[in-house]
Write a structure and sequence with these properties.
The protein has 183 residues and is mainly alpha-helical. It has 9 helices and 6 strands. Helix 2 packs across helix 3 and helix 7 packs antiparallel against helix 8.
Length: 183
């Protein structure tokens, strides 16, 4: 029964990681265990200066099981991930920022405006280009550098025939803001 329930959680995190659009975390409190794994499954994260983080699963006889061992090591490095996971010790927002787990720290009242401003900047860009760039970054990290470079070119080449690329170049040449359509 535990494993069947956990499979639903696994599907949730896989859907988050594989979402077709960027996902931004805004942490305003504690992100422990699955909460931190959710933050790590996002494309990037902002947090309040008082946020606390931990992967405490080993203190309960289990281990991170929603991608934490993989996403934390990619965000903070193998040694830091081992320290965080194997000790189960909570840490603060300053450490999370210094270790690459969150991108920036904010006062509570500025957190959501910062996250929404980033989302607006992303949304103003060519949607197909954003998706392919995100796919290239995520997919390339699963490969060696040479294969990742080839994968990047595959993603890049998908954008060449798009209307958005043509519009972007025209807008640049005409010194105006492009009007992207996602085609």
């Amino acid at each position: 029964q535990w494993m069947a329930q956990h499979e639903i959680i696994e599907q949730q995190y896989a859907a988050l990681i594989n979402a077709p659009v960027p996902v931004i975390a805004a942490v305003n409190g504690h992100a422990f265990a699955g909460g931190l794994e959710m933050v790590l499954a996002c494309d990037f994260a902002y947090a309040v200066k008082t946020a606390r983080f931990a992967l405490t699963e080993v203190t309960l006889g289990i281990m991170p099981g929603a991608g934490g061992t993989q996403t934390l090591a990619r965000a903070a490095g193998e040694r830091r991930a081992k320290e965080i996971i194997l000790t189960g010790q909570p840490f603060g927002a300053e450490e999370a920022h210094a270790w690459g787990i969150v991108n920036s720290l904010h006062e509570a009242e500025a957190l959501m405006p910062a996250a929404l401003a980033a989302a607006a900047r992303i949304a103003a860009n060519a949607p197909l280009a954003v998706r392919e760039a995100r796919r290239s970054i995520h997919g390339g990290l699963q490969m060696g550098l040479d294969a990742g470079m080839r994968f990047e070119i595959e993603c890049y080449n998908r954008l060449i025939p798009t209307e958005d690329r043509h519009e972007g170049i025209r807008a640049f040449n005409e010194k105006r803001k492009p009007q992207f359509k996602g085609r």
